[in-house]
Structures are given as structure tokens and as C-alpha cells.
Design a protein that fits this description.
The protein has 308 residues and is of the alpha/beta class. The chain has helices at 21-34, 56-66, 84-91, 106-121, 134-137, 142-155, 169-172, 174-179, 199-214, 240-257, 273-276, and strands at 36-40, 70-75, 95-100, 127-132, 161-166, 182-186, 219-224, 261-263, 301-302, 305-306. The chain has an 8-stranded parallel β-barrel, surrounded by 6 helices. A two-stranded antiparallel ribbon has the order 9-10.
């Protein structure tokens, strides 16, 4: 790979503090060009939010932007146009992790589950995710979620079925772990207030906790990322530099140790501010206008080193 010289990493990352601005910029571009296993897809344009109808045009446009950089794409819903994402992605030659979004509305939940089954039976789903952080939010009981998981498994036996949640939920909820064919663990050092300096080793520990709980089942990191702007959380601080460092370390580890990771996220989406605070709008590798976000302008230097 083009970044072979950086392959041998320390436990905590690739010594990126020693990189000059130009060196970090070049490494980021090489890592991005070399490709990701997977990318979480952000379909909503400025002014849109979940519940709004997505168009074929906007989905196609955004998929074309990310296609050169990822093998897999992850979608989060099977309604309101989100069901078009895996169809169009498969047409472009990408693999799909397709999610049914489950919440506290029974009618919507049934539409989501029906949509997931139909997409899978039609051949548009490579991995099916029944719910995303439902236990974390408390939208359903464990028993209700298990009913949905087993229902989907009965209908789409040829597609691996999993559930997405924070890594620790799979330790705390062994019945859910047992029900899943594949473990889809969200790992966010940022949301646990971890400093960027220790974020990679922290994520490795999160992943290994999920691996231990999985008892031999495959574990995929279904989300991880770092925001580029907004207020910090304890020792975790959003910035362009920190977001770039986290992305580089994540991808180098993914390639070196053959870890399947879906990076979060493709595009900035302003609607996320409501749920996550100001950092919510700044998780993308591309901005809300679909422009590359990192290093489109010169970075500030201090003695030829990055300001973090």
C-alpha cells in the first residue's frame, strides 16, 4: 500500500505528532486514497432531517463521491427513501450493511422491519442490522428487540443478521449477543472523554471487550469517528487536526490487523446538533456542501508543527 512506511504502528498510534503539516496532509491523502473497509452514509442535505423524503438524485450524487474510497456502505433506515441507498450502492458495486431503525413507535418499527426483509430477499443486503443503539436509548425492552431480531432471521436465513450498539452492551446483554450472527459494535473514545493521544489504544480495548463477549462470532466496528469542531468532552477535543489523526490511526490499524471498520461519517449533517450538541454537525470527511473537509486551506503552523 502507498503508506507502507507507516505500517508499523505503536500501540497508541502512528506517532503523528512528529509529522509536519505537509507530512500529515500527505499521509491523510494517501490513507484516504488507499480506501476504507466501510463508511457510514450521511444522506441528508442541509435543511433536511430524518423523516424527510430522500431523492434518488441526492443519494446517487453522494454515493458517487464516496465510492472511490470505500468497499462497503452502511445505511441506517429502510423508509423515507433510505431504502434506495442499498439498491443504488449495489448498482455501483459496493457492499451493504443495511439497518432497520427501531424506536418507540410500533407502526414505524414494523415498516422498517418489513423494508429490511424485502431488501434482503431482493438481494440488496450483505449484512442486516436490526436496530441501532435501541438498548442505549431505552426505546424498546430487551425482549421486544429480541423478537425483531429472531423475526428477521427467520425470513432472511441467507444474510447474516446483527444488532448495532455500544460495545459494552454485548457484554451486559448476553441474550442479544447470542441472537446475533455478527456483532456490530460502536466504539467512540471521544464520547467517553478520551484524549486523542490515547484514543487508538482506548478503541482497541473497546473492540477487544466486544470480541470477548462475542465468543468466536465475528465483530465489526459499526461506527467510530472524531468530530472536527465543537465543544470538548473532558479530555476529548474536537479539531481538524485531531479528526485527521484519529482517521489515519483508525485506518492504519484496520489495514494492519484486518479489522472491519465502518467510519463515521461520510458527510457533515447539521440536523445532528439537536441530539448531540454542536459537535453533532461535524463528523464527516466531507462537509455539508459535499466538499472535502480536511486540508482545503493551509493549516496554522508553530515551529513547523501542527497546532492541535
Amino acid at each position: 500500500m502507498s503508506y507502507r512506511a507507516d505500517k508499523i504502528m505503536s500501540l497508541s498510534g502512528g506517532h503523528l505528532d512528529k509529522k509536519t503539516t505537509k507530512g500529515l496532509q500527505n499521509l491523510y491523502k494517501r490513507v484516504l486514497k488507499s480506501g476504507m473497509h466501510g463508511l457510514c452514509f450521511s444522506p441528508y442535505e442541509e435543511g433536511q432531517e430524518p423523516g424527510d423524503q430522500l431523492s434518488v438524485k441526492q443519494i446517487k450524487r453522494r454515493l458517487k463521491i464516496i465510492k472511490p474510497y470505500t468497499k462497503w456502505v452502511r445505511s441506517f433506515s429502510c423508509t423515507n427513501g433510505n431504502e434506495l441507498i442499498p439498491v443504488l450502492a449495489k448498482e455501483m458495486g459496493m457492499k451493504t450493511l443495511v439497518g432497520a431503525w427501531l424506536g418507540d413507535d410500533a407502526e414505524t418499527n414494523q415498516k422498517e422491519i418489513t423494508g429490511l426483509k424485502e431488501l434482503a430477499l431482493d438481494g440488496y443486503v450483505d449484512i442486516a442490522a436490526v436496530g441501532n443503539e435501541v438498548m442505549y436509548r431505552g426505546d424498546l425492552t430487551e425482549s421486544e428487540l429480541l423478537d425483531f431480531i429472531y423475526d428477521v432471521k427467520r425470513h432472511i436465513s441467507n444474510v447474516p443478521v446483527g444488532y448495532v450498539d455500544a460495545y459494552y452492551e454485548f457484554t451486559q446483554r448476553p441474550k442479544i449477543t447470542e441472537a446475533c450472527d455478527i456483532i456490530l459494535a460502536n466504539c467512540y473514545p471521544y464520547w467517553e472523554g478520551c484524549s486523542i493521544d490515547y484514543s487508538l489504544i482506548y478503541m482497541k480495548d473497546m473492540y477487544n471487550q466486544a470480541v470477548k463477549a462475542a465468543k468466536g462470532k465475528k465483530v465489526i466496528i459499526s461506527e467510530t469517528g472524531w468530530p472536527s469542531n465543537g465543544e470538548g468532552l473532558n479530555g476529548a477535543f474536537p479539531s481538524i487536526n485531531n479528526a485527521v489523526k484519529y482517521f489515519i490511526n483508525t485506518q492504519l490499524w484496520s489495514h494492519e490487523d484486518n479489522i472491519d471498520i465502518f467510519y463515521f461519517s461520510s458527510f457533515d449533517e447539521s440536523w445532528k446538533v439537536g441530539a448531540e450538541g454542536d459537535v453533532g454537525a461535524y463528523w464527516g470527511l466531507w462537509d455539508k456542501n459535499e466538499n472535502p473537509k480536511f486540508y482545503t486551506k493551509p493549516l496554522q503552523l508553530t515551529r513547523n508543527k501542527l497546532i492541535v
